[in-house]
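Risk register update: the risk that structure generation would not scale has been downgraded. Supporting records follow, first protein first.
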Amino acid sequence: MIAISCNQILKIVRDEFPDSPDLQNARLLHKWASSPNSLIEGLHKPVLILLPVDLADQAEQNSIHFEDIITSCEVKYTDSTSLRTLAQAQAAELGLFCMWKQVNRCSYVAFSLCSSTLTIFHYTRGGARVSECIVFTPHYSSVS
């Protein structure tokens, strides 16, 4: 498996399409940020949040507001029923506050990752949907 960053993908696209002004000016709009020690408006500490790229680079220094958050991921380092329930409650709380502050937003997608179990949550103003747990097995490669 080859790991490639978003910046490397942008460079490849720019190299492959030098005559396209739209692709030459492409840039990242959002970026995942980790701010586990910072409360958002004094209420919640999510593990990962997707923010506009200009805010993501300063997530630790600046205060983040619910209006800024695109999506979130709650991470637990082990998997148990109680931790999955806690992650779902935390995702629901964050989704509620984001949709409350972003009045033109009609849905919010959040994730929880408990060890190797991924769950996707889709919150709307009419209710919530939760995916089946997606269990994946990480493949480790030895470094020579």
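Supporting record for the second protein:
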Amino acid sequence: MQDIYTGLLRDFADAEGLDPEALCATEEIEIAGLSLALAFDGDETFGDLVYACGLGAVQAERAGAVHRWLLEANHLWAGTAGATLSLQPETGTVLIAGRLDLDGLTAPALGAVLEDFVDVALYWRRVIHEAPLVASENPSGELQVDAFA
């Protein structure tokens, strides 16, 4: 399955005008200012492509509200389009990640998934750093998705 993963990265790089050797070596791409890490997870019988990026650390004064929003968003993936939000224990950096079954995955399909993933990641980066916290701007204390999006 590792060979399928490597072939997919090469096909994706070709389709996106990237250097296939560089992508295979770094397993990292930049899209819309986000650095996305790609990785293989599996063995010779099954395999997934894992994709993730860091969104920054939560400021102390925002931690309570933001951590609540992250948990709520992860509930049945309601606010993440299937990705998972987490906190890196050592740094407090918020991470967003997803995974795809390699079986039948094509470069165009990967491109479409990553495009959607980046949209969600950019949204959450804004939430983490910019969403209103004060009662006059956000009386319910809940994330106002429609107002913020």
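Residues 107-130 form the longest helix (24 residues). On this basis the risk owner (M.S.) recommends closing the item.
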